[in-house]
Amino acid sequence: MNADVLKGGFAAAPVDAAHAFRAAMNAIARPGTIESICGAMPPAPMSEAAGGLVLTLCDPDTPLHLAGNWDCKEVREWIAFHVGAPIVAPGEAMFALGDWASLTPLAQYAIGTPEYPDRSATLIVEREMMEPGDAVLRGPGIKTSTVMSLPEVAAFQKNATLFPLGLDFFFTCGSKVSGLPRTTKVEAA
């Protein structure tokens, strides 16, 4: 194991994890808002925010799928050392990490069952930039509406029609994170 794997976790794990958890929950509770998650130093290509989400939300009982360039030796070793999450195929994952192109098609992930809708996957989608954009969001946690840049509006519209089943999403870029739960209605701007 490379010595660099030992680095990159939270410096003050209890405090940093609490801050990251609060930022993640605020982001998912208020779709379209942007929060900060700082303190993690994961290997490339993971962003600081994605690393913070993995450190906070994953553990040995949380199967994780790594897609595309994120499925590399450095990321696998870092995850094994810091959280011990098993790396699995998309259909077995509770969380999945990658960019939009490598995470699609969405049909490969668990969307839950009518009896257990919570047994669905949450995708951590790495973005090159986060800015207001091409989609109008409405639903719980949004007073009237807000705008957000999404990689493919139609995919999120379809996901919302599956409710109470469906996928939840975190979008990360650098130290920034935003969330999009399955309850959010999405329209093209």
UniProtKB/TrEMBL annotation:
<protein>
    <submittedName>
        <fullName>Alpha-D-ribose 1-methylphosphonate 5-triphosphate synthase subunit PhnH</fullName>
    </submittedName>
</protein>
<dbReference type="InterPro" id="IPR008772">
    <property type="entry name" value="Phosphonate_metab_PhnH"/>
</dbReference>
<dbReference type="GO" id="GO:0019634">
    <property type="term" value="P:organic phosphonate metabolic process"/>
</dbReference>
<dbReference type="InterPro" id="IPR038058">
    <property type="entry name" value="PhnH-like_sp"/>
</dbReference>
<dbReference type="Pfam" id="PF05845">
    <property type="entry name" value="PhnH"/>
</dbReference>
